[in-house]
Design a protein that fits this description.
Number of strands: 10
Number of helices: 14
Strand order of the largest sheet: 3-2-1-4-5
Mean pLDDT: 85
Strand content: 15-25%
Distance between the termini: 56 Å
Bound molecules: iron/sulfur cluster
Radius of gyration: 28 Å
Length: about 375
């Protein structure tokens, strides 16, 4: 006999499990959210209202609203109105909130007013990952990506997303509407080092982050950065020798040019706050390959007083040519996943601080999902409760 799978009669009396606990199995991710939030010291993290007020209407404990938001960002339900609806009809949320159904205004106000604390929750999860031994490799990739803002006028970007290179976790992140990466390297790398609680860190970034001052700041902070130099020099585009074609000889303090001539040091001056040393030779006038080098009287090479730091960066890159491919593979995974989860409209809220809160929730949801996939629900629960 040919037939379809049949549903039940809607008028039939049904015996649902009497206990909400029976609706949520042992491997349900909501159990991880519940255990993680319960483990947090919410007042230390910075949430208001952890202790009930002596007078007035009872309010919702911040743990309830935080659990609701983490659930929402894990399941692509980011709007406060949709979260309110889910709280009234979704058994997982009912379990998570003990059947509390806050109204959408309460839910929205919580996200609006708890930005710094929510960012700290994100930090706390990375700390937990560190304690669980997921961030043992002192190696991170730094990258940035543009994310669409609600208002096109005030474009938002997230910058300096740092991910560990082993498990593709986001160690730290920063939201900015500055379109350039240049001034971000040291601050984001130092944040990563602090979060990981280590003395020395290896960081790989793309050429957009290349800035002498930032690389020097990283060097002084014990962070070994590897990144390529931007190929922006007009002189190379015109087919002439670039600075990399001149070899510096430390012992003699000279540059050796492609014709084998030694460019000696002549004087030092300061430009835009940088102390620069100038080198040249008088042999240029009679040089057979001068047309490939300079149109001037002689070719001059400039050396920053901390140029050796940049040379070490280049040496590291030459030694590990795979570093950039590794960085791309490491950083692209979180960006692609985050954008897919965010949907067509990346952020719901306007203004940088609120967008930063949303980003923190997205990053937390991303990291939670990664760790659940890496470890499995039960071992993660056990580690949280340990
Ligand atoms: S032009 Fe001067 S610096 Fe350039 S290759 Fe010739 S000698 Fe060397």
């Amino acid at each position: 006999m040919r037939r379809f799978v049949e549903g039940i009669d809607r008028g039939q009396a049904t015996l649902f499990p009497e206990c909400l606990e029976d609706w949520v199995d042992e491997d349900n991710p909501v159990r991880v959210i519940d255990a993680f939030v319960d483990r947090l010291d919410l007042s230390r993290v910075g949430f208001d209202g952890v202790a009930p007020e002596a007078t007035g209407r009872p309010s919702y404990h911040p743990a309830v609203l935080l659990k609701l938001y983490i659930y929402g960002y894990l399941n692509r339900v980011q709007s406060s109105r949709r979260l309110e609806r889910e709280a009234g009809r979704n058994v997982e949320v009912m379990w998570l909130t003990s059947r509390l159904v806050p109204d959408h205004k309460t839910i929205a106000d919580f996200r609006k007013d708890s930005g710094p604390a929510i960012k700290q929750v994100c930090v706390q999860f990375v700390e937990l990952c560190r304690l669980m031994g997921l961030l043992t490799k002192a190696s991170v990739a730094i990258d940035g990506s543009k994310f669409k803002a609600v208002n096109t006028r005030d474009k938002n970007f997230t910058r300096g997303k740092v991910v560990d290179t082993k498990h593709h976790l986001i160690v730290t992140h920063e939201v900015t509407n500055d379109g350039s990466d240049r001034a971000q390297l040291a601050s984001i790398a130092c944040q990563a080092k602090q979060v990981l609680g280590i003395d020395e860190l290896e960081a790989v970034a793309d050429r957009g982050y290349y800035s002498g001052a930032e690389i020097l700041a990283c060097h002084e902070a014990g962070i070994e950065v590897t990144l390529p130099k931007p190929m922006a020099s007009g002189i190379e585009a015109r087919g002439r020798f670039g600075k990399q074609d001149f070899r510096y000889v430390t012992e003699e303090d000279v540059y050796v040019c492609p014709a084998g001539e030694k460019l000696a040091y002549h004087y030092t001056n300061e430009e835009n706050g940088l102390v620069l040393r100038r080198y040249w030779t008088n042999a240029c006038q009679s040089c057979a390959i001068k047309q490939r080098c300079t149109t001037g009287k002689e070719r001059r090479i400039t050396r920053w007083e901390h140029e050796h730091v940049l040379e070490e960066v280049q040496k590291r890159l030459d030694k590990n040519p795979q570093a950039m491919r590794q960085r791309r593979e490491t950083a692209e995974h979180p960006f692609a996943t985050l954008k897919m989860r965010m949907g067509a409209t990346h952020f719901l809220m306007k203004r940088l601080p609120k967008v930063a809160t949303e980003m923190a929730l997205h990053v937390l949801a991303y990291n939670l999902t990664r760790v659940m996939n890496i470890m499995g629900i039960q071992p993660l629960m056990a580690a949280i409760q340990a």
